[in-house]
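Table S2 (text version). Query chain:
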Amino acid sequence: MIDDAFLTALPKCELHLHIEGTLEPEMMVALAARNRVAIPFRSVEEVRAAYSFTDLQSFLDIYYAGGDVLRTEEDFHDLALAYFDRAAADGVVHAEIFFDPQTHTHRGIPFEVVVRGLLAAVATAKEKHGMTVELIMSYLRHLDQEDAFATLKQAEPWLDRFVGVGLDSSEVGHPPSKFAAVFAASRERGLKLCAHAGEEGPPAYVLEALDVLGVDRIDHGNRALEDSALVARLARDATTLTVCPLSNVALRNVASLDVHPIDRMLELGLRATIHSDDPAYFGGYIGENFRATAAARSLSRDQVVALARNSFLGSFLDDAALSGHLRRLAAFVQAH
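Corresponding structure-token output:
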């Protein structure tokens, strides 16, 4: 059994984190009161009891409803900074976080309100924790590509503050190819590309993300294991998979952590990583994902170090920063 303190302090990157998914019940209730927003819950306990899901869509329903309490720059700052504080305590030294502008602009919240609040928290995280953070603007796949293009246009003044774009929300029935043109336009603007694929959708969605969108990494990707040729390709190309174990179990894509395929992914030569997805809803931040998964799957010390190393290799850090983090990781492992 690997010591929990080692797993927690192990330097790591968080590459699959939706900032709206860090909205803890206490903050939801507090922001509802601060902004005088009506929510269908009378207490923190009622909110927490509602955080129980049968599939991705049942989660998204409450996820979007909860997002309605986020109204001001201060709200987005407070939400993000609370996450950065938790992430720093879990050994995160670099984070590349998703935000969903359409979730907010469709409620009448100006794009710049969201971004200014998040960037203020990013600056605080750097000063407070020495953490580096990049923002990834995600397109909502249940909306149409025209809406995604409108979002890209709104983002134009801010694109130099983002590292990439992503694709999230309801997967089944919304293949990556639906967004081919807007992803091409995003790439032309110098943005990195990633997309949720193979969470609930089939292996074919992973292939579309690679071949049609030209993504730099795959978010989730669990169902790629159903296609041996795809697995071989992902391993050969060292394509990063940002896997979220507690999320997989909460949304019933995996029966339990006891049968989670994370170690099989490593054994197959895949560049698998561990992240927390929407931790307020799924039972734990990145440290808990490492601790719970390592215990359930009896991961070796070498395997958890490989998962942390893969998170750096899969990041969008430049070569100099990447080399520095890899040296830091090696020094930590040697010292512990």
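Notes on Table S2: The radius of gyration is 19 Å. The chain has a mean pLDDT of 95.
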